[in-house]
Amino acid sequence: MKVKEIIVKSLSLGVGLAVATLLIAMLCHRMSYDRCYSRPQQIYQIRTHYSQQAESYDYDNVSGAVAPGFRAYVPGVETATRWTYIWNSDKFIDEEKNVLEGS
Description:
- With 103 residues, the protein is of the alpha+beta class.
- It has two domains: 1-39; 44-103, no CATH class.
- 38% of the residues lie in helices and 16% in strands.
- It has helices at 2-32, 66-73; strands at 48-52, 55-59, 91-93, 99-101.
- The chain is elongated, with a radius of gyration of 23 Å.
């Protein structure tokens, strides 16, 4: 009986420590992921939101001309870029039509 209690306590402690470590790691990552930028408070993301037949949709990307349009017509925009999600792909296509593949 005593051996079972020791095993249960050890497993409980191990699982608790593992979960705590994962939560701390996630918190540290979320708090520091954008610290590589010198002015993160000046980074904005433009998203698409539209409604169709009483349903609303949100997307993380916008049409192709939005980034250059913002750069040209909105004062204070220093640089702009856009990305297009390619479904189930690890490819990235830049403005010069170069295809970059991830691993």
